[in-house]
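Entry:
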Amino acid sequence: MKKQPNRFIFSFLGLLLIGITFVSCEAEKDFVQESDGGKQMRRVISFQQFKNEIGQPRFGTGMSLSLSANARNMEDFDIDTTQVKSLQNNYLVYSMKLDPKFVPEDSKFYNLFVYKDNTDEIVKQIIEIMPQTELTDQQTEGIYNYLNTANKEVIYSSKTMYQSPICVGVVMVDVCTCGPEHPREANCNCQTFHAVAQIQIMACPSYGSPPPDAPEPNIENPDQNNQEGGGGSVSGEPVLPSLDGPNPCGNMRNLFSPLKSNIKSKIQTLQATLNQSGENGVYLRKFQNGSYSSPQAPPTILNSINPQIGSTFYGFMHTHPFNTYPMFSWSDVMSMHQIAQYTDPNNIQEVASILVCKDDTGFINLTYAISFSSETANTIDNLYGQEEFLGCEPNKVTQIYDDMLKERYDNDPSYERDFLRQTYGFNISLYKANATLTGWNKLIYDPVSNLVKTIPCN
């Protein structure tokens, strides 16, 4: 569509041994009793109870990466106070999920670990976890695989320690199953137990500057490591992302996932063509075995390019050159509608159209996406079935709406708002990628304020 020409890194510091412990189906229970060894084992408590136990009734719900290389000019996280887990081994460790105030990369999530060290000082650790697989269930094996393959890093610690590399080990521990589940101890009277997987992340080798002859850390039996200066293991059970939580962006995160569409490099390739005449594109395909591919489309010298349709095609990426509008046309909407009509029903939730363009200055690259929404029953098919269009060919109706959008773009270069106003009330959702191509924001039109509002994707 033509437009007018005027236009940690916080280094891992000190000894940290984070044992992420998984137990059986009992995992959802609130264990408040003590083990035979006198330790309060795995519990789920309220945020108020956590504040009472830690002795800080005014414990804040915001967290900042202050004093770390990842620090921003604002608090970076809000604490999700709906669930606090507690686990006692050498220390009584409380863990909570953190909600970032920024759009995280891919499926990263964050946890806050809080505990008192040997000097009774409250220590806060922020753990960044980047899964490499999907969390498909809350059973022991699924959680173990999910976290075992994830990239895990401590990006903030309130306790200043020395720089050290990370050691990671996976062990199996015996867990007593009579009463509250707890690691089998020498004085345990319970005769029934089972093996449970435990992930342990450890800085090598201990708090403080290690002596030259310091022994290598013992991954298999981490509690035998040097405990001087801060001693012992710090074991915490992370609060995982909800499988059922609302996600305002549906399956959009799959587009950047290395395990799925993984389109970041394709977008960067298309960005390099934006000063050329004509449009370039990429087909998005998903096969019956679940694998994805994104072959390049033949370039054109025209300001239009057609998608491929068929059972394995679920989306299309294309450019708008600098002499065209930096927003979707109505023809783009109908191309996505056509893809949805012919794709395999198993792909329908992932149908999307991606636009790569520049803003009006020509200096800023933009990436947008549209998809079909289930938030309204007013569909594109209903639009084409309106009484005034009876007897009109679909291509003629598309041209009418293309012209209407062009008029909006010409008169009001707030292109995001123009498009959202044109599609308001219909089952079309608009998204905008962040500058690093690691996440999406959903854009919605507020007719009261006449403004576009942004909702970060989960």
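The helical segments are 47-54, 140-148, 264-271, 330-342, 380-384, 394-411, 415-423.
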